[in-house]
Structures are given as structure tokens and as C-alpha cells.
């Protein structure tokens, strides 16, 4: 029996040929991926409206609502459009903090969700390290690993972005100590076994992970020590003594500041190398986001990341790329680090958000700890979420959604460039050219823009101190871009 609601249909055409080439001409004629998506936003009450206010008050009795953005009606949200409880429908370019890839109520995902395979995996959740099903290998090979970054062919699955990062850090530390000990066969010493039980060296070594200023890698204990975006995330939580390097601060437009920016990147690379060589707690891995996302949409060039890879190779430090926010198509390539053309792949790549599952990819078998139960949890991920990721991958491939995102991003960027010329004070440092729809800019009135955007029917997020960040879904098309551009101009005129 299908649980698909009548009328909720995804277009059956295989691909959108026009959207597969990068074009900056409007594709008004392009068919929407969701045939029943609204033709535009509808705002009929103030936001929040009376129903939302009432529901928020009720929720507040049992759940902290101080971070509430809007109470959502997920039964009515479709494709790129999010609905609230007052009948308002907004074009959503925030997409659950960049984590919805193929649209609200995607019919293919509904099919996956109601399949017998899904039901079995939901009601019989395995402790994956101990009792995986016979299908687990196939689920991984036809899903998570089908899109593994070049050069990486194995995965540890996890529950969320922070979790993925933390288990990657653990893998880095265990790998490092294994090398120091003389390889996987070398036994732990009595001293190590005893000292680790009282959190002391050498069993609990003072190793570190190097991350960057303004980085965001999550909020669990270990990941939080590499997060450097906002103090409020970190306050009161004990942290490791780990080094931070400066992330390049590029000037825009890039074409006009090429030399300065190259110098800035060189300066940051020198700092990384110096910290690796001199920091008192030896660095086991360098952790970096391809585009610092929560920290304000800070970009660096492929040359910078190539430089990082070179330094990590030279200094025998692992190179971990955090693709939690950038991964799964948003930058117009499946993985953002595909833009870098690295000679040697990263040692580990972490993922979550649009994958709807999480984990880290790796290739070197020595990154598996030398004994079982060293990298272990009850669940170690979730097959039902891995099935959803496989469904997402099927949709991305069927509809050519990475190509769509590259093309729509170019179109949207051109429109934003026009707006930035017209309203330079509200569109500063426009960035993300050639990076799909992963676009941002700064505005001194950022918070006002985000609030007013809702009232004209657009749900947008911010990042860092002053950036407006766009994180539309992969099904965002040129006609959505047109609506967004028009509404943004409307907001600017209201300021
Ligand atoms: C780059 C990056 N890494 C890690 C995380 C943490 O992921 P999660 O919130 O799923 O733990 C985030 C979340 O925004 C992120 O953007």
C-alpha cells in the first residue's frame, strides 16, 4: 500500500536538459520538479501569526522555545516551500539549517519511508557494531559509499555532525599513537593501560586537533573544542588545550584583490605549519570546513586547501575535511572539496545534514583502530537514515540535482551581483561565485533583513556576525531564484 498523498507527485521527466548546462539566462520555461509546489509564497497574517503564537506558548510549557524560528506544518510544506500554522507558505532558502536536500514531502522519499525494508529497520534498530543485518553491506555500497569522495572507500556511520567529527578525531588520535607505538601489532604498555584509567598520560595523551578561528565543528564535548565561531556555544564547558590557526580573511570582489588574498592565504598557511611544529600538545590532525559556514560563510581558494594538504603530508598530520554543511551537492559539486583538485585525498571526510545520516569516510585501512570496540557505540548510526540517504542519492541522480544546483547558483549569483551594484550598502562582500547556491553576503542590517524577509514570504538564515546566508535545497530552480531576488529587493526597499 502506498502512503503517498493523492496529488503529491514529482514530475516523471528524467532530467531537465536546460538546467544541466551552466547558464545565466532565466529558465522560466523549466518545469518545476514538484508539480504541486505553490507558484509563490503566501503570507496572510503577521509572522508569527495567532496560531503560531498559541502553539509556541503551549510548547513553552514543556520545551525551551527561545531559539524558535517558526512552528511548522510539515504536512502542508511542499518542495521548496515551508508552511506555518497560520496558512503562511514561505520560500525556504534556509532548509532546516541546510539539511533538507530534495524538498519537503518528496514523494520518492515517502516511498522509501514506507518500504518493507524501512519498516524492518525502524522497528528493529540494530546495534550496528554487534548485530548488523545481512543487508547492511549492500545498503552502504548502494548508498553512503556510492557517493564516497574520490580515494575514500570505507565509512564509519554516526548520528549527527558533531558525533561524526568526534569519532574522526578519535580515529586520528588512535592512528597517531599506533604509529608512535610501532604499528598495529605493538601492544599497549602496562603504564598506558593504568594511566588512562585516571585520565593521565601516556594512556590519555595530550594530543590535539588544529582547527581555525571562526570554525564550527559541532557542540559535543570534543567537537566543541574545535569550534571557534561564537563564545555562547562554548561558555562554561571545559575545553581541550588545542591550537587554532587563522582562517584567511579574503577581500571581495576576489578579482580585484587577487594578490592581497594570495598573500593572506600564505600567511595563514605559514601559521598552520608553525603551530603544527611548535604547539605544546602535538597536533594529530588538521580539521577544516571547505567554506566556514556557521562562522560567517568564509571562503578560501583551492590553492589554500592544496597548501593545507601539502603541509599535513609533510608534517605527518592527518587532514580531515568537515563537509557536514558543504557536502551533498550544495556547492555545485557533490563534495565541496571536489573543487580543489587535490593530488592526495583528505584522510577523512565527515558528513551529515543533507545526507540525513552522518559519519566519516576514510581510505587508509590503518585508520581502523587495531582492536575492536575502540570505535564503538550502541547504534553507530542508523540503517533507516542510511536508507533515506540512499533515496536522496537516487533523487539527486535521477534529476541531475548537483548540475541543477551549479546552474541555478550561477543564475542566482548573477542576480545578486546586479542587486549588489544597485544596493551596495546592503550587499557587501558577495561570495560563493561558482559554488552552486552556497552564497552569502554581509549587511549591517542583516537581522532586520532576515526578519522582514519572512513577512514578504522568504525564510532565510544568517551566519556569523553579519552574513545573510543562502542554503536552498538542491531542487531550487531559476524561477525560485527570481522570486527570491524580487523579494530581497522588496525587503531592501523597506529598510
Ligand atoms: C561544518 C559543520 N560541522 C559540524 C556541525 C555539527 O553538526 P550537528 O549539529 O549535526 O551536530 C555543523 C552544524 O551546523 C556544521 O555546520
From TrEMBL:
UniProt keyword Transferase, yes or no: yes
GO MF term list: 4-aminobutyrate:2-oxoglutarate transaminase activity; pyridoxal phosphate binding
InterPro entries: 4NH2But_aminotransferase_euk, Aminotrans_3, PyrdxlP-dep_Trfase, PyrdxlP-dep_Trfase_major, PyrdxlP-dep_Trfase_small
Alphabetized CDD domains for the sequence: OAT_like
Catalyzed reactions: 4-aminobutanoate + 2-oxoglutarate = succinate semialdehyde + L-glutamate
Enzyme Commission code(s) on record: 2.6.1.19
GO biological process: gamma-aminobutyric acid catabolic process
Gene Ontology, cellular component aspect: mitochondrion
Keyword entries, A-Z: Aminotransferase, Pyridoxal phosphate, Transferase
Cofactor or coenzyme needed: pyridoxal 5'-phosphate
Family membership: Belongs to the class-III pyridoxal-phosphate-dependent aminotransferase family.
Name by which UniProt lists this protein: 4-aminobutyrate aminotransferase
Source organism: Aspergillus chevalieri
Phylogenetic lineage: Eukaryota, Fungi, Dikarya, Ascomycota, Pezizomycotina
Amino acid at each position: 500500500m502506498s502512503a503517498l498523498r493523492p496529488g503529491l507527485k514529482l514530475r516523471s521527466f528524467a532530467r531537465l536538459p536546460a538546467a544541466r548546462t551552466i547558464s545565466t539566462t532565466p529558465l522560466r520555461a523549466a518545469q518545476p520538479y514538484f508539480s504541486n509546489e505553490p507558484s509563490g509564497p503566501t503570507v496572510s497574517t503577521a509572522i508569527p501569526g495567532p496560531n503560531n503564537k498559541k502553539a509556541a506558548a503551549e510548547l513553552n510549557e514543556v520545551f525551551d522555545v527561545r531559539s524558535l524560528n517558526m512552528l511548522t506544518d510539515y504536512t502542508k510544506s511542499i518542495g521548496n516551500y515551508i508552511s506555518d500554522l497560520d496558512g503562511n507558505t514561505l520560500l525556504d532558502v534556509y532548509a532546516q539549517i541546510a539539511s533538507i536536500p530534495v524538498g519537503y514531502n518528496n514523494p520518492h522519499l515517502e516511498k522509501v519511508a514506507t518500504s518493507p525494508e524501512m519498516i524492518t529497520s525502524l522497528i528493529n534498530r540494530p546495534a550496528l557494531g554487534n548485530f548488523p543485518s545481512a543487508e547492511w553491506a549492500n545498503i552502504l555500497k548502494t548508498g553512503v559509499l556510492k557517493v564516497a569522495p574520490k580515494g575514500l572507500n570505507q565509512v564509519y556511520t554516526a548520528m549527527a555532525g558533531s558525533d561524526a567529527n568526534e569519532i574522526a578525531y578519535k580515529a586520528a588520535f588512535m592512528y597517531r599513537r599506533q604509529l608512535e607505538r610501532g604499528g598495529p601489532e605493538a601492544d599497549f604498555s602496562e603504564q598506558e593501560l593504568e594511566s588512562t584509567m585516571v585520565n593521565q598520560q601516556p594512556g590519555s595523551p595530550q594530543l590535539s586537533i588544529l582547527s581555525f578561528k571562526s570554525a564550527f565543528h559541532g557542540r559535543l564535548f570534543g567537537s566543541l573544542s574545535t569550534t571557534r565561531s561564537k563564545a555562547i556555544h562554548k561558555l562554561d564547558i571545559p575545553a581541550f588545550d588545542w591550537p587554532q590557526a587563522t582562517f584567511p580573511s579574503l577581500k571581495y570582489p576576489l578579482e580585484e584583490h587577487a594578490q592581497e588574498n594570495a598573500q593572506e592565504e600564505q600567511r595563514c598557511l605559514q601559521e598552520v605549519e608553525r603551530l603544527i611544529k611548535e604547539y605544546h600538545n602535538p597536533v594529530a590532525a588538521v580539521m577544516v570546513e571547505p567554506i566556514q559556514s556557521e562562522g560567517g560563510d568564509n571562503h578560501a581558494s583551492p590553492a589554500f586547501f592544496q597548501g593545507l594538504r601539502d603541509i599535513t603530508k609533510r608534517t605527518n598530520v592527518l587532514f580531515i575535511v568537515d563537509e557536514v554543511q558543504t557536502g551533498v551537492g550544495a556547492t555545485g559539486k557533490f563534495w565541496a572539496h571536489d573543487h580543489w583538485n587535490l593530488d592526495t585525498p583528505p584522510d577523512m571526510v565527515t558528513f551529515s545534514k543533507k545526507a540525513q545520516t552522518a559519519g566519516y569516510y576514510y581510505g587508509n585501512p590503518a585508520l581502523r583502530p587495531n582492536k575492536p570496540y575502540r570505535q564503538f557505540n550502541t547504534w553507530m548510526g542508523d540503517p533507516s537514515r542510511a536508507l533515506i540517504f540512499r533515496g536522496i542519492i537516487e533523487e539527486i541522480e535521477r534529476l541531475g540535482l548537483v548540475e541543477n544546483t551549479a546552474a541555478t547558483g550561477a543564475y542566482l549569483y548573477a542576480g545578486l551581483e546586479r542587486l549588489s551594484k544597485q544596493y551596495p550598502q546592503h550587499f557587501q562582500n558577495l561570495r560563493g561565485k561558482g559554488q552552486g547556491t552556497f552564497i552569502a553576503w554581509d549587511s549591517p542590517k542583516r537581522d532586520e533583513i532576515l526578519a522582514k524577509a519572512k513577512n514578504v514570504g522568504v525564510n532565510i538564515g544568517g551566519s556569523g556576525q553579519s552574513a545573510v546566508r543562502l542554503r536552498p535545497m538542491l531542487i531550487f530552480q531559476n524561477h525560485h531564484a527570481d522570486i527570491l531576488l524580487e523579494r530581497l529587493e522588496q525587503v531592501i526597499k523597506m529598510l
